[in-house]
Design a protein that fits this description.
5 helices; 88% helix; rod-shaped
């Protein structure tokens, strides 16, 4: 059976994993946006954007996707820091969880 400290450490490691997944997703999205930006920066990309509606829609999605990069990275870092704090201070984590009635 898990005692409260171990439960806090397990939850902290799960939260760190979630933050790491967000950072990996950020890296993948950054690579996709860089590739798409390179495609639309040359002559044929600009021509395709001017003639095809799908390429125009993709260029608009490119702008939207690039605006999500910074908040995604910041959220991943904050989540990882929160998980590390849960690992470093398990007693405080247990107190907070019992106050919030997550643990008994």
């Amino acid at each position: 059976m898990l005692d409260p400290k171990r439960t806090a450490r397990v939850l902290g490691s799960l939260i760190i994993t979630q933050g790491a997944v967000l950072i990996v997703f950020w890296r993948i999205l950054a690579k996709i946006i860089a590739t798409a930006t390179e495609r639309y920066s040359n002559f044929t990309g600009r021509m395709a954007k001017s003639f095809f509606t799908q390429d125009r829609a993709l260029a608009e999605l490119l702008k939207t996707g690039s605006s999500f990069l910074t908040p995604l990275l910041i959220a991943g870092i904050i989540i990882i820091v929160l998980g590390v704090l849960m690992l470093v201070f398990p007693k405080r984590t247990v107190r907070i969880f019992t106050f919030l009635r997550i643990l008994r």
